[in-house]
Amino acid sequence: MDEASTFRVLNREIFLLIALSVGAVGVYAFTKSMATKEQQMDARIAAISYEEGQRQFSSRQTEKAIDSFRKATTDALKDRTYALALANALAAGNHDGEAQQTLLRLREANPEDAEINSELARLAAKRGEVDDAVHYYQNALYGRWAGTGIDDRKLQLRVELIRFLLVHQQRDIALSELLILDADLPRSAVAHVETARLFLQAGDPQHALKNYDAAIELDKDNVDALTEAGEAAFRLGDIPRAEVYLKATVRLNPKIEKTRRLLSVAEMVMSGDPLAPHLTKQEEHERLLRGLTQASHRLEVALSQTTDSREISQLNTLGEQALAMESELHSELSPDSEQTKAGVELIYAIEKATSASTEEPDDFDLALLRIGQKYGGAQP
Amino acid sequence: MSTANLSFMQRLRLRENHIFFALTIIIGILAGLAAVLFTLAIKGTTYLLFGIAPSNLRYILVPTLMSLVTGFLLAKFFPEARGSGVPQIEAAYHLNQGEVPFRVAFGKFLTGVLCIGSGHSMGREGPSVQIAAGIASPIGKWFHLSPVRAQSLVPVAAAAALSAAFNTPVAAVIFALEEIIGDMNATLLGSTVVASVAAVIVERSILGNNPIFHVPAYHLVNPAELIGYLVLGIVGGIVSLAFCKGLLSARLLFHGMPKWTKILQPALGGLIIGVILIFFPQVMGVGYQFVDQAMNGGLLLKTMVLLCFAKLVATIVSYSSGNAGGIFAPSLYLGAMAGGVVGVLMHRFAPFPTGDPGAYALVGMGTLFAGIIRAPMTSVFMIFELTQDYQVLVPLMVANMISYLISRRYQPVPLYRALLEQDYVHMPLPGTRQTTDLWRARDVMTREFTLVSPDSSIQLASAIVAETNAQSLPVGNNGACLGLVTRDQIERALKSGAANDVIGTIVTDNCAHVHPDHPFDLVLDRLAKNPGLLPVLSRNQMNHVEGVITPQSVVQFLQREFEAPTGSGQ
Lengths: 380, 570
Hints:
The complex is a heterodimer.
Chain A: H1 3-58, H2 62-75, H3 80-92, H4 96-109, H5 114-127, H6 130-141, H7 150-167, H8 171-184, H9 189-201, H10 205-218, H11 223-236, H12 239-252, H13 257-272, H14 281-305, H15 309-331, H16 337-355, H17 363-374
Chain B: H1 8-50, H2 56-76, H3 86-95, H4 102-117, H5 125-142, H6 147-166, H7 169-181, H8 189-207, H9 225-255, H10 265-279, H11 288-295, H12 301-320, H13 328-349, H14 357-372, H15 376-387, H16 393-410, H17 415-422, H18 441-444, H19 458-468, E1 472-477, E2 480-486, H20 487-495, H21 520-529, E3 534-537, E4 545-549, H22 551-563
Antiparallel strand pairs in B: 1-2, 3-4
């Protein structure tokens, strides 16, 4: 082969390379269009499977729903809705491991997705994995939210987190979440009542009462708010405030026996407190004497019922002190403030000592206990 | 050095290098496109034939009827398209200088789509390799590439096809080197990498960057867990053996049937598959979604045990009955199920903390691949590429090594090679494959020899020996060698008065032989141990004598070589 003919061969090779390249482009375009068509077909099949899965899931056929959602996710690999539905169904069917894997895969692509993180948090919560659950809940709360009613959904999720924390004895984190929740609350009596209850569970009646107040301000006829606010105020020792709420509750729903009784106790505290401000000496004397009489009566009952020698001895000592106090009060018409304070303490000591051995205290006994607590007695 | 200073031949050689490089890219792209089209066509066919929720009748009818069609096509038009495609490509590469007709690619595409799309439990990777090679080989011819270059296009195309079909470009390159070429030091590394990358880019640009599997994060929870992976290796080895032995036995069974049934055998396989599909629709086709489920803890222990067994039987039936499809995907499926089973049991009963069963399913895939395909490096790289996590390497290597050793101990001939031998193709051993620069047996042999019929008399053989002065004579019929008879044997027979006995009575079968591609040093070695004559047997037609090598032919060859400086054997 001479040089010229060899170069003719080489030119043929160049031509062939170009022809192959053009052919490859053509095949690429064809394959791409085939792939697009097939992806569209997959999307249709996935949609059908998803709807079927939804129907099965709502009729509690969880395993069948899982199969349908699986098919939907196989045909539409990147569809977040289908994958989330699959994860939910898997979690409902107790396939927690696979549900978690599904969600983690979704999370890889959307690490800030609130819905994915919240589902992961629920799964971790279901498994009792506190650290993971808190991590995912917080990722969800500070993540990216989509759709409508975001504030409301976010609020519900935080409430869910707080409940989880309270169940798992994480009071401090729960309280900090509650304070954030409190700051973000909408103007809704229901929301304030719910928050107040959570504060109570977390052991913070001050904030609870504040939320009850806010709820009542928004809905003055909200019986739940009024009742629970009365209870919270009573527990805090703010008896005048408790009396106001409880009175309003009884006015709206007189049939609630528990509230009526609490109101009665509150009223007795108000009318029986010898150390209340602005009392005349006469009123102070009368209140102290009335309380002492009630306590002495209860002491007598207790002595008649107990057989424990140590307790009898203790009660006898208290009885002697009560007798001495009574005779003093009968001889003097106006006790000085120190004497009144000592009287209140004695009454509290008797009520407390008798509460263990005698029958259920009546309202006045409860009122006397509350008065004693108010002036330095420990919680009963 | 500038090109102006080069000689004309040097410039030509440089030109061929550039063209080969361009071809590597184009073949990578075309192989990628072919693999993607093949995947799409299988999926579309499956949907078309089965719909969304197929009835039991459909499960029976579709594979049976479609296999009738493919049986006819495979028997009449595309006999080379049966089975996986990988062994055929290995044979083409080592025995036919990489020649694969385009007709094979077309036939494989058509029958592969129909077989796998109609529910046969087979993989798409092996067929993709054969299709790609069937595209690359004619292209090499169009460009009048040198034989070595044309042969090189086959592993290049194989790497590209596997890269696109399985979405693991590195493992695809390793597979081409380890399995197709049989030499990890091959000089084709660069070309296979280029083609593999080109193919995977094409695949991802069309199908998106979606992984085949959703691989869970891998954790080796406790070093003691390696005991679990050792157990997995043993289980993997046993399952691999069961699969290999079962497949080879079932294939022998089908081969033993009357010749006229060959056209109907795929349909018989289809009928059995239909029955299996009624009870286990999860074993249909490639089945990667269930591999995914096993890896992600979505299957119960009992389900995985049943699926492992059902897939094993279904794949053996589909393959041995002569349908078109591979065993790459089924081996991964079996591995995921077997691994999942071991994982669940370890999780329940191991006295130390263990990882999720999904991790075992993942390693199990590589374990079965190492045991069945016998490509341990590919299996390690494949799983490593799927996880992209170094932690998986040690457990993976432990399990793969055990499985590989068990499989090799009890099934000495690798599955692909054993399948070829059942088709009367004798592949060269790895040690003798890559000797392109040496003299070969075909260069040394002489085609001038007399094949003595076993029915001839010893007297006649004695006369031939006396006339040719040969030390041994090949004995056989119709070009097929049955054995050798030596001058000593003939003389002893004559002395004992058996001159009129037939030569078949004293012939030595299982005699030493070589194949045309065997290197010169092996020829000398065997000739030294069996003095006189070495028959050169064909690899494509077992026992067919292509020539003989005698001490005289060796001397003549060497004389030729030293007289002609540009020796023909080079």
